[in-house]
Write a structure and sequence with these properties.
CATH class of chain B: Alpha Beta
Strand content of chain A: 25-35%
Order of helices and strands of chain A: EEHEHEHEH
Largest sheet of chain A: 5 strands, mixed
CATH superfamily of chain A: STAS domain
CATH topology of chain B: Heat Shock Protein 90
Number of helices of chain B: 4
Oligomer: heterodimer
Number of strands of chain A: 5
CATH topology of chain A: Transcription Regulator spoIIAA
Number of helices of chain A: 4
Radius of gyration of chain B: 17 Å
Number of domains of chain A: 1
Number of strands of chain B: 5
Shape of chain B: elongated
Distance between the termini of chain B: 32 Å
CATH architecture of chain A: 2-Layer Sandwich
Structural class of chain A: alpha/beta
CATH architecture of chain B: 2-Layer Sandwich
Helix content of chain A: 25-40%
Distance between the termini of chain A: 50 Å
Largest interface: A-B, 24 and 27 residues
Helix content of chain B: 40-55%
Radius of gyration of chain A: 14 Å
Strand content of chain B: 25-35%
Largest sheet of chain B: 5 strands, antiparallel
CATH superfamily of chain B: Histidine kinase-like ATPase, C-terminal domain
Chain lengths: 125, 158
């Protein structure tokens, strides 16, 4: 069976990495999603924005990946945020209250602005 | 024909069953979601409800695949991944979806579940929570030879 694709690419906008993802995130593609985020985190970035504009579906595999990725960022004052989530994904993130841990923004610009303002705050002891 | 018999006859005519069987492997879960999307879309569910059913069925399949990976690790002599069979029963106002797998149970508790696909969060707990939230009823029947998750969603009309 052909591999169901999850594609992604990262770009740096105003010093903040933005990961653009396309496809469906489930048990099959979640490892690729995790690798894509890890590739950015390993470079030392503490704020990561994920652009979900072209993600049609995400299940608990994706939610789990996001939680895992955000865990090491929070103690160092970092953040993982999402933009352009579709209605279904936004609804699930809100129902499960994961949106309180991984904030959702309407645009990349808003997410970057939030990352910059977090950077200005002191890192929690 | 009495009224009662006519009603019974109508109910039987309204009943439709769709069965799908596929390998218990991660790459096939998206096919299950696609199939249930088509089935639920034929019924009186709203767009959000169809999405809820699609996600819930995907979570049940994901759970089966995860257990299959664990079973294969615990018992390498296991013959491959096994199969998942989805039986969708449609009535005029209710969709029942049974997700049956033949993954042997009885392996060490799932607490020792060691990240078979490289993600270290308790996704099984998250998946189970999502199923409970997304459909009206969730039943899980476990036997030594497999598990059946039964999801029921009532259609209230759109």
């Amino acid at each position: 069976m052909d591999k169901v694709q999850l594609t992604s690419f990262a770009e740096i906008i105003e010093s903040v990495p933005v990961l653009h993802v396309a496809g469906e995130i489930d048990i099959f593609t979640a490892p690729d999603f995790k690798d894509a985020i890890a590739d950015i985190a390993v470079q030392g970035y503490t704020h990561i924005v994920i652009d979900m504009q072209h993600v049609a579906f995400m299940d608990s595999s994706g939610f789990g990946t996001l939680l895992s990725a955000s865990k090491p960022l929070r103690p160092v004052g970092g953040s993982l945020s999402m933009v352009n989530c579709n209605d279904s994904i936004t609804r699930m993130l809100n129902i499960t209250r994961l949106s309180t841990i991984i904030p959702i923004y309407a645009t990349v610009a808003e997410a970057i602005e939030a990352a910059h303002s977090l950077s200005e705050q002191p890192v929690p002891a | 024909m009495t009224d009662k018999m006519e009603k019974l006859s109508d109910a039987l005519l309204d009943l439709a069953v769709v069965t799908l069987t596929f390998p218990c492997s991660a790459e096939y879960v998206s096919i299950a979601r696609l199939a249930i999307l088509g089935i639920a879309s034929r019924m009186a569910f709203s767009y959000d409800e169809v999405e809820d059913i699609r996600l819930a069925v995907g979570e049940a399949c994901t759970h089966a695949v995860e257990r299959s990976v664990v079973a294969d690790m615990r018992a390498p002599t296991n013959d491959g991944h096994g199969t998942i069979t989805i039986v969708s029963t449609m009535t005029i106002n209710e969709l029942t979806v049974e997700i049956k797998d033949d993954v042997p149970t009885g392996f060490p508790p799932e607490g020792v579940f060691q990240d078979p696909v490289g993600i270290d969060i308790d996704r099984q707990g998250l998946g189970a929570l999502l199923m409970e939230i997304l459909v009206d009823k969730v039943d899980v029947d476990t036997t030594p030879n497999g598990t059946c998750v039964r999801l029921v969603k009532h259609a209230h009309g759109v």
